[in-house]
């Protein structure tokens, strides 16, 4: 990665490491993402995509979590400084 | 008065039998076993119960239920293995089952198994369970793996921060299990009274909680934690709230 970026987590390729900058959802989905460890400042590694490209596995706070693209669309991430 | 408390306790026993298929009696105290997935919960369950276990489903749910029993001295305990979850906010059948048992199953104690290698992730569930019941014992499992990774955990500090007993374990080799069982025994018989740390929310939420708590205390009459019920009302968890009020035999103004 070159330069500072802010992007949706769903747009990053496997191998990328970033941190959570914010969540674009409210209600149950937001709570669910927070419970899974997607809290602002948390480090996330994109592990791999499933053969059809969705879902994608992420490594966060010591566990591998799979998210659908429409869930990962709601997570804003930034480059690790 | 005496008679009415006896009646209400048999009523609770009947409800728990019907709803969770768990037999509750003075001869056999009930312990719930909760934790995130992959924390060694089942290893602890197997170590405690050996072959004295049976499996089935939670009544009406396609979720596996395992129950077993163990003895501490002459006291018999029934231990119920709850589904592994990251949260109790009822986003899935597993979470609903775990939450309902902790809330309506009225276990005498709850063991929360946490993974020593990723405490932060696991403490989310610990805090949520501590909001429902104070009778919590935390088992920090996989201590050997944490050591291998160079992680050291200050149990005493964690215990004082959480306000509930913390027991380090390596369930795979049975290390710490005896200490865990003794601690559960003490908590179940009220010899140790945990004082769970209270999670503070934003001022507007805290104000609303403070406003509701005195009335809720009267209505709930010690059956449920008023603070937790107030928080669930604010969250708009109407399904759960209806069940709680039903259990307290309160007729709801909006249900008439």
Name the assembly state: heterodimer
Radius of gyration of chain A: 12 Å
What is the makeup of the main sheet of chain B? 7 strands, mixed
Head-to-tail CA distance between termini of chain B:
30 Å
SSE string of chain B, helices as H and strands as E: HEHEEEHEHEHHEHHHH
Low-confidence stretches of chain B: none
User: What is the terminal separation of chain A in angstroms?
Assistant: 12 Å
Strand content of chain B: 15-25%
Structure in words:
The complex is a heterodimer of chains A (81) and B (256). Chain A has helices spanning 27-35, 69-72; strands at 6-8, 17-23, 43-49, 56-60, 63-67, 75-79. Chain A is of the alpha+beta class and 81 residues long. Chain B is an alpha/beta fold and 256 residues long. In chain B, 46% of the residues lie in helices and 18% in strands. Chain B has 10 helices and 7 strands. In chain B, a hairpin with a 2-residue loop joins β3 and β4 (75-81). Chain B is globular. The two termini of chain B are 30 Å apart. The interface between A and B is small, with 9 and 12 residues.
State the gist of this model.
Chain A is an alpha+beta fold. Chain A has helices spanning 27-35, 69-72; strands at residues 6-8, 17-23, 43-49, 56-60, 63-67, 75-79. Chain B starts with a helix and ends in a 9-residue tail after the last helix.
